[in-house]
Amino acid sequence: MSTFDNMSQYAERMQKLYPEGTRLVLNSMNDPYAPVPPGTRGTVDFVDDAGQIHMKWDNGRTLAIVPSEDDFRKLTDEELAEESEIEESEDLEQTM
Asked: 3-state class of 67 per DSSP?
């Protein structure tokens, strides 16, 4: 199997694991110049052909995650429910 085939399969795996809209939290980023702070949450925008996960971070950043370099995880069902409750209460406050 060629290197291209390996990279293509890796990217496909990442696309299946982290489809658009998946919520992630960053534990650490291996970027010495402008890393996203640990604990930052974000939403997957897309996964590119190299398997990098392009994010829309909640703090406004758009820096990609490199799975082989950065430490991150999906939000748990409990964390997603908590976010949903917060959004609903904020929406309710705006309508009052």
From this structure: coil
Report whether pLDDT(94) > 90: no
Q: How far apart are CA 88 and CA 4, in angstroms?
A: 45
Question: Which pairing describes strands 41-47 and 53-57: parallel, antiparallel, or unpaired?
Answer: antiparallel
Mean pLDDT of 32-54: 95
The more confidently predicted of residues 26 and 8 is 26
- Rounded to two decimals, what is the model's pTM? 0.85
Query: Residue 83 is which amino acid?
Result: E
E strands within the chain? 23-28, 41-47, 53-57, 71-74
Distance CA 17, CA 89 (A): 30
Tell me what the mean pLDDT of segment 40-50 comes to: 97
Domain that holds residue 36: 3-95
The domain tally of the chain equals 1
